[in-house]
Amino acid sequence: MGTGDFICISMTGGAPWGFRLQGGKEQKQPLQVAKIRNQSKASGSGLCEGDEVVSINGNPCADLTYPEVIKLMESITDSLQMLIKRRVDTPFLFPEDQSHPPLLHLLGYTSQLTVTLASQLMD
């Protein structure tokens, strides 16, 4: 996927999480977030379409097939923690349950990016 930022995403409360994955070892593609459902746990967590999934609850995903990933996801009962890699050119959208942008600073984005994104969202 090239250069990017590593971000930890956490969700609680069990499935449904509200996102769909694609890729996997058998497809010779990185595991990526294909779709995020509106008003879901995933949309409120800061997860973005196109994010590469590095690990799920501490389990590395690089050598997992898609069926193995599905089996892993189905075994998660309450708390989901994902390490994701986000391309530097992927726009960040504020999580639905956030009323202000400080989350961007927690994720390592600069204040200039915050201003740029905020002005794009207001246009």
TrEMBL record:
One of the record's GO molecular function terms: actin binding
Family: Belongs to the synaptopodin family.
Pfam families in UniProt: PDZ
Keywords, alphabetical: Cell junction, Cytoplasm, Nucleus, Phosphoprotein
Subcellular location: Cell junction, Focal adhesion; Cytoplasm, Myofibril, Sarcomere, Z line; Nucleus
Subunit structure as annotated in this protein's UniProt entry: May self-associate in muscle cells under oxidative stress. Binds F-actin. Interacts with ACTN2; ACTN2 is proposed to anchor SYOP2 at Z lines in mature myocytes. Interacts with AKAP6, PPP3CA and CAMK2A. Interacts (phosphorylated form) with YWHAB; YWHAB competes with ACTN2 for interaction with SYNPO2. Interacts with KPNA2; mediating nuclear import of SYNOP2; dependent on interaction with YWHAB. Interacts with IPO13; may be implicated in SYNOP2 nuclear import. Interacts with ZYX, FLNC, ILK. Interacts with BAG3 (via WW 1 domain).
UniProt-listed CDD domains: PDZ_SYNPO2-like
GO cellular component: focal adhesion; nucleus; stress fiber; Z disc
Main location class: other
Gene Ontology biological process: positive regulation of actin filament bundle assembly
Official protein name in the record: Synaptopodin-2
Domain PDZ: 6-88
PROSITE patterns (alphabetical): PDZ (PS50106)
